[in-house]
Amino acid sequence: MTTEPDLSSTAAKLRHQLTAQLAADGRLRSPAWRAAVETVPRHEFVLCFYRETDDPGLTTWTPVTADLVGVEEWLRQAYADDTLITQFDGQEIDWTDPKPIRGAHPTSSSTLPTLVVHMLEELRLHDGMTVMEIGTGTGYSAALMCHRLGPDRVTSIETDPDVAARARDALNRCGYAPRLVVGDGLVGHPEGAHYDRTIATCGVRHIPHTWVQQTRPGGLILATLRGWMRSLGLVRLTVDREGRAEGRFIDGDPSFMIARQQDAPKSLGMIPAPDDGASRSTPYGPDMLTAAGSGFVAQLAMPSARFFSMPADDGTPCTYVLDGRNESFAVLTPKSDDEWNVRQGGPAALWDLLENALHTWRAAGSPKPTEFGVTVAAESQWVWLGTPDGPSWRLPTPAQSTDGSA
Ligand SMILES: C[S@@+](CC[C@H](N)C(=O)[O-])C[C@H]1O[C@@H](n2cnc3c(N)ncnc32)[C@H](O)[C@@H]1O
User: Fold this and answer.
1) To test the ligand 1 pocket, which listed residue (159, 174, 198, 231) has its Cβ within 8 A of the most ligand atoms?
2) Confidence tier at 403 by pLDDT (50, 70, 90)
3) Helical residues (DSSP H) of 150-202, grouped into ranges
């Protein structure tokens, strides 16, 4: 049996190992963050969680608690460099009798420690600064910031009341009392403004302008932009005096769960009938949607699209790209080894938008996402290539059209 002192010393040893590993990987660089990771007991924030297993087929998650796997194994997993899932489909888990879960959609977690420290380092915090975090989750990253800055300088917002309550308990157990807000982090928390830094640990389709308004001029916003097809990546924006924010994508490709209020509608939209739309040939096949560089470009070009593959009645493989907001579609079928047929319809010619964006990207030498940047203004926001006046693609803010062109 593991006694209390054993638990604390085992946890401290595992924490030390995790800290050393994150430092050796080059993610944990500054002494202040190193001290925070060495000190904050992650296990207090993940008393019960699910961990992905390697089974083939549909993703399966297995429950982990000290009772289920033993204290030492629970601690080992709590201090592994892994994402630990704490909620699925917005529903609380019955921890009196937890079962393995398959085919569900994670909605809250303790983020991968590598990514947590990468973001905190990239946030460029200094003593005396204030920070607003969107997505409290388990409260672990908020606790690290409390250790670094002092709890009275940390505001953290969580949209899910049950998740927020658990985070509050864990933070209290560790002696931290930051300002915790239950609500939609997309509107921020004006009562605490202006913040020196704003950080989001859920993904967003566009940067809420409220974050720009609530971050002081010269302050930074760090967030993951993502679409309904994939993540675009981490951006760090500097706020200016005119109420705009601008900056580049930085290294790291987190695939954060999307802000709940921006999640894709359940329905994909109308599936086009076999004779709908106009057909032509294209050299670009469906792999353009999934390959690393072109997938990023596809997400920019078709910000509200989603896709799936399904054979037609005669067995022909078909990939459907659908924009449910305006009923635009592109259906791809193979024609020869290096040619495809695309059938398009609706107000936005989706495959034309993708091809134009791919031509621009390839003409520039197929640059990495870090060659792209973002400008956020009150009325619109866009991703640009190279410089702010370079080729650009609009992000889907509520006031924008959704055809992807700037
Ligand atoms: C990846 S988890 C956060 C991880 C957390 N920072 C930690 O260290 O445990 C993302 C969280 O964002 C929350 N979330 C989603 N949409 C939100 C919103 N609009 N405002 C605030 N929180 C939101 C989710 O409920 C979830 O708990």
Assistant:
1) 159
2) very low
3) 161-173
Q: Ligand 1 mean position to 201 CA, how many Å? A: 6
Query: Alpha-carbon distance 138 to 338, whole Å?
Result: 48
The domain ranges of the chain are: 278-362
Would the CB of 162 count as within 6 Å of ligand 1? no
Res 87 pLDDT > 70? yes
253 or 368, which is more confident?
368
User: In three state form, how does the secondary structure of 352-384 look?
Assistant: HHHHHHHHHHHHCCCCCHHHEEEEECCCCEEEE
Distance of CA 38 to CAs 29, 43, 79, 148, 404, Å? 13, 12, 11, 12, 45
How many CB atoms are closer than 10 A to CB 99? 10
Mutate to test the pocket of ligand 1, among 158, 168, 211, 262 (most ligand atoms within 8 A of CB): 158
**Adjacent-strand bridge partners of 339:** 336
Q: What is the DSSP letter of 259?
A: P
Which ligand 1 atom sits closest to the C-alpha of 110? 9
**β-strand pairing of 154-158 with 131-134:** parallel
- Return the ligand 1 atom nearest residue 163 CA: 27
Which CATH number fits the domain 278-362, given the four candidates 3.30.460, 3.30.160, 1.10.10, 2.30.30? 3.30.160
Cα 398 to Cα 76, 300, 376, 378, 379, distances in angstroms = 44, 16, 13, 12, 10
Amino acid (one-letter) located at 406? A
Nearest-5° Cα angle at 389, 388 to 392:
80
Tell me which residue has tokens 């202040």.
Answer: 32
* Nearest residue (CA) to ligand 1, atom 13: 135
Q: Any residues with CB less than 8 A from the CB of 102 and at least 6 apart, and which?
A: 58, 59, 60, 61
Mean pLDDT of the chain: 94
Nearest-angstrom CA–CA distance, 398 and 391: 22
Band of residue 404 on the pLDDT scale cut at 50, 70, 90: very low
Helix, strand counts (H, E) of the chain: 10, 20
